[in-house]
């Protein structure tokens, strides 16, 4: 069986560093504390488990991992960042219910095409109990929800912004996959810190340019960004989702090329253009025109009586009565009833799954058999279909998402830096020893 990886939530099992609580640890182990985060602690055993999960990901390519002490530092930073976010989420009242958690697990097993028993078996082989997995997944969902809430409260996109983007976007539909490596600078960095960061980023680029290390391995070893342990891979992004600092240099770059060091608000960066693709072809969708009658199930009209009523309505229509007359008399759908049941033109899922299934099965002019949805019993008549060009609408929707994503990334990155700056953090992990290197080569 293929390895089970719940990709929906950032590979929470084998990719994201797990946050195993003290009570889930073997009681016979005497744990040391590697970090204090406000009033919480991160234990040595938690860090060891998280590092072990990362090593499992690179079992076939261990040479890409940094030295053990550097890897520990990176993983601990990720644990600290996640713990801070969980603490803020708890203070804000963000909670994930047991029902939501179970629904998420159901989606994971469906997407991975495995059973729950198979998932449990894979977890056991990875040395993770099912309860630990649930706890990790709940934490991941909690952080995701807090991020969504934060972004919704901070990010707005106006029609004017969309118009400006579409007017100046000479590469509409273009998307790029980027690698990103950051040497971070603190707020109010001193000249000495700036010089050290610039020397380090130049040394990293030198390693890559000389072929001593590929970009992914360099990001894993040296990047201070949250994508470090993914080799800096930021995935596919629309051109305008990318900060202008990076977007402005991309037109001159070829796939595989690495930028010169760039100074931004977070520090010094390198960007690698991995791939580029174009998705600007015209977009069309099938739209349906239909009429419908719905008999609602209520406390006074149970499912059997509703079914009998819709059967009678269909019999009248098949017998020759006008659909619109019967709809105005019988239908409980207040949206379409006054139009004689006319539902207008719509995309297939606009009226729900039950109606969608009928639309795809019927021919033009055909009246369906009675069918049930979550609200009642229905009949529909498919009047016609058409192919509708939605390119303009799709471009505007994509532009809105692009602007929102870019703003969200910037706002949340700023929020995380502020969160860490204001928190009490006692990192008790010994700093990594400097790595031997040539002049101008980074030292970790």
Automatic annotation (TrEMBL):
Record lineage: Bacteria, Pseudomonadati, Pseudomonadota, Gammaproteobacteria, Lysobacterales
Name of the protein described by the UniProt record: Chaperone SurA
Record flagged with keyword Glycoprotein: no
Keywords: Chaperone, Isomerase, Periplasm, Repeat, Rotamase, Signal
Predominant localisation class: periplasm
Signal peptide: 1-24
SUPFAM superfamilies: FKBP-like, Triger factor/SurA peptide-binding domain-like
Enzyme type, top EC level: isomerase
Organism encoding this protein: Chiayiivirga flava
Subcellular location: Periplasm
Reactions catalysed: [protein]-peptidylproline (omega=180) = [protein]-peptidylproline (omega=0)
Pfam families: Rotamase (PF00639), SurA_N (PF09312)
Gene3D superfamilies: 3.10.50.40, Porin chaperone SurA, peptide-binding domain (1.10.4030.10)
Keyword Repressor recorded: no
Domains (record comment): The PPIase activity resides only in the second parvulin domain. The N-terminal region and the C-terminal tail are necessary and sufficient for the chaperone activity of SurA. The PPIase activity is dispensable for SurA to function as a chaperone. The N-terminal region and the C-terminal tail are also required for porin recognition.
Domain PpiC: 173-275, 285-384
Gene Ontology CC terms, in alphabetical order: outer membrane-bounded periplasmic space
Role description: Chaperone involved in the correct folding and assembly of outer membrane proteins. Recognizes specific patterns of aromatic residues and the orientation of their side chains, which are found more frequently in integral outer membrane proteins. May act in both early periplasmic and late outer membrane-associated steps of protein maturation.
EC number: 5.2.1.8
InterPro entries registered for this protein in UniProt: OMP_Chaperone_SurA, PPIase_dom_sf, PPIase_PpiC, PPIase_PpiC_CS, PPIase_SurA, SurA_N, Trigger_fact/SurA_dom_sf
BP GO annotations: Gram-negative-bacterium-type cell outer membrane assembly; protein folding; protein stabilization
């Amino acid at each position: 069986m293929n390895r089970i990886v719940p990709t929906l939530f950032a590979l929470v099992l084998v990719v994201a560093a797990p946050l195993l609580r003290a009570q889930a640890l073997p009681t016979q182990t005497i744990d040391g504390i590697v970090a204090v985060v406000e009033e919480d602690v991160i234990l040595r055993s938690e860090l060891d488990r998280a590092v072990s999960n990362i090593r499992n990901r690179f079992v076939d390519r261990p040479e890409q991992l940094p030295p053990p002490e550097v890897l520990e530092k990176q993983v601990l930073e990720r644990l600290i960042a996640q713990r801070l976010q969980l603490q803020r989420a708890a203070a804000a009242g963000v909670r994930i219910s047991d029902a939501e958690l179970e629904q998420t697990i159901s989606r994971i097993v469906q997407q991975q095409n495995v059973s729950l028993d198979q998932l449990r078996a894979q977890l056991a082989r990875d040395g993770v109990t099912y309860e630990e997995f649930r706890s990790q997944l709940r934490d991941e969902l909690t952080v995701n929800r807090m991020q969504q809430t934060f972004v919704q409260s901070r990010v707005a996109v106006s029609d004017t912004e969309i118009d400006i983007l579409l007017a100046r976007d000479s590469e509409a539909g273009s998307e790029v996959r980027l690698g990103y490596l950051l040497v971070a600078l603190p707020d109010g960095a001193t000249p000495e810190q700036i010089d050290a960061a610039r020397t380090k980023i130049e040394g990293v680029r030198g390693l890559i340019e000389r072929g001593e290390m590929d970009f992914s391995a360099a990001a894993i070893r040296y990047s201070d960004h949250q994508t470090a342990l993914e080799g800096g891979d930021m995935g596919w992004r629309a051109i305008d989702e990318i900060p202008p600092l990076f977007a402005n240099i991309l037109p001159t770059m070829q796939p595989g090329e690495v930028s010169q060091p760039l100074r931004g608000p977070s520090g010094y960066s390198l960007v690698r253009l991995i791939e580029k693709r174009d998705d600007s072809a015209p977009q069309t969708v099938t739209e349906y025109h239909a009429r419908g009658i719905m008999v609602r199930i209520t406390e006074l009209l149970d499912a059997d009586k509703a079914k009998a009523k819709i059967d009678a309505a269909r019999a009248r229509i098949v017998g020759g009565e006008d659909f619109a007359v019967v709809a105005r008399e019988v239908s409980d759908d207040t949206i379409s009833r006054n139009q004689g049941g006319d539902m207008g033109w719509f995309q297939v899922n606009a009226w729900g799954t039950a109606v969608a299934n009928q639309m795809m099965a019927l021919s033009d002019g055909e009246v369906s058999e009675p069918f049930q949805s979550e609200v009642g019993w229905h009949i529909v008549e498919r009047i016609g279909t058409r192919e509708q060009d939605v390119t303009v609408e799709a471009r505007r929707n994509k532009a809105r998402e692009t602007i929102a994503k870019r703003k969200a990334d910037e706002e949340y990155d700023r929020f995380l830096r502020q969160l860490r700056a204001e928190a009490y953090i006692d990192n008790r992990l010994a700093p990594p020893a400097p790595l031997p290197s040539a002049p101008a080569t980074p030292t970790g």
